[in-house]
C-alpha cells in the first residue's frame, strides 16, 4: 500500500541535512478498531507535518500527500485519512510533494494539537465504519474573520452556507474542527460546534446534535448549516428566513444538567419559553410576524430559593457576551447626577452596537440584584428626600422602553420584595415576565442534595447508607440555601 523507497529530502539538498530514515510503523491502540466488524484497523505509517502555502489546499481544507506514500482512489476522489487514531481529514495526492510528509494548515494543526516537528500516525479511514449514519444532517459552525482583512458588509447566511457546501462537499467534519474558507476575497475562520448525523437509508431516526469530537459525518448537498458569529472578530451575519439567527441566544451545545440548578426545572422552563423562545426564530421571520422580544425578567421570592443562582447560571446557556452583574446599592452615589449616569453606563455598549448593526446586534444581558434598593415606588420618599430614587427609576424606564427602544437587551431583576418596586417598571415592554421562585418540593430538594453531594460521590467519601430521598423528605420547607 505504501512505498517508502527513495524518500527525498523536502528541505533541499544541503550537505549537512539528510532525509529522515523511515521509522517502523506502530500498531494503533485497540480502541480504534472497526467497531462494525471487530476487524483490526490498518497499520499506520509515520509522517511529518509540512507547511504548504498553496491556497487550494489551505482554503480547501485539504492535506497534500506524496504519490510515493499513497495510491490514488480508482475514481480519483480525495482520500480519507485517520490522524493519530482520532482525527479524520481529507487528503489529495500531489505530484512532486516530498515523501514521508503531509501538509497541514495552521487551523488543522491547532485542532489536532500537532507541531511541525512532531511525527504522526496516518492511516486510511473507512467513512462508513460507524454504519449507515455517516452523513451530516445539521452542522453548527462558529464563523469569524481569520485575519486583519475584514468588512462591515453583512454576510448573507444562506449564500455563506451554499459556498461552504460547494467548497467542502463530501468532506468529513467533527465538533471542534477548525478550517479556513475564502469567501468573496475575505478569509474566514470557522469552528464546528455540533453535528447531527442522519441515516440516508431511513432505517433509523436521526441522532440529536452532538458536541462529541468523535461524532463525525460526511457533508452533503442537503446538509443544513447554521452559522453563529464569533463576537470577538466583529463579523456581521445577515439573518436568514429559513435558518436560526447567526447570533442565536442559545448555545448549540447547551445542556441543562451542566448548570447545577436543582429544584427549579419548572421555573427555568417557563423562563426559557417566555423570554428566550422568540429569539430562536429566524430574524427575517420574526420581522414579518412583528414579534417583539422580551426585554426584562423579574425573579422574586423568599431569600435563599435560587434567584441569584438562576441569573448567574443563565450565562452558561446563552451564546452572548458575558452578562453585566450589578447589585442595586452599587448604583447609588453621593454626587448629584452620578446615580443616573451609572444607569446609562449599563446600557452604553448595547446602544452603541444597536446603532451600528441594528437587529443583527448581539444580546446584552444585565443582571440587577436587589432591584428593590433603587427602584422603589416613586413619590415614596426613597433617596433621602433628594429625589434621587425617583430619578433612577425614570432613567431605567426610559432605557428599557423609551423613545429609542433597544431590541438587543435583556434585564434580569431579582428581589425579595416585589411589592416595593414601582408599578411602571413591571408593565409589559419592561420587566414583563414575573417568575416566582418558591421553596423547592420534595423532588427539587432531592435534586439539590444530589448536586451538592456529587463531589463526595466522585471521591468515594460518602457512606453507602446515605439515603438522598429520605433526606429530601426530612427537609420539608427548607430553602435551597438552608439545604
From TrEMBL:
Gene3D superfamilies: 1.10.8.60, 2.40.40.20, 3.10.330.10, P-loop containing nucleotide triphosphate hydrolases
GO cellular component, one term: Golgi stack
Biased composition annotated in UniProt, kind: Polar residues: 1-15
UniProt region (Disordered), positions on chain: 1-43
Keyword annotations of the record: ATP-binding, Cytoplasm, ER-Golgi transport, Hydrolase, Nucleotide-binding, Protein transport, Transport
Biased composition range(s): Pro residues: 19-31
SMART domains: AAA
Function, in words: Required for vesicle-mediated transport. Catalyzes the fusion of transport vesicles within the Golgi cisternae. Is also required for transport from the endoplasmic reticulum to the Golgi stack. Seems to function as a fusion protein required for the delivery of cargo proteins to all compartments of the Golgi stack independent of vesicle origin.
PANTHER family per the UniProt record, alphabetical: VESICLE-FUSING ATPASE, VESICULAR-FUSION PROTEIN NSF
Descriptive protein name: Vesicular-fusion protein SEC18
Species for this entry: Aureobasidium melanogenum (Aureobasidium pullulans var. melanogenum)
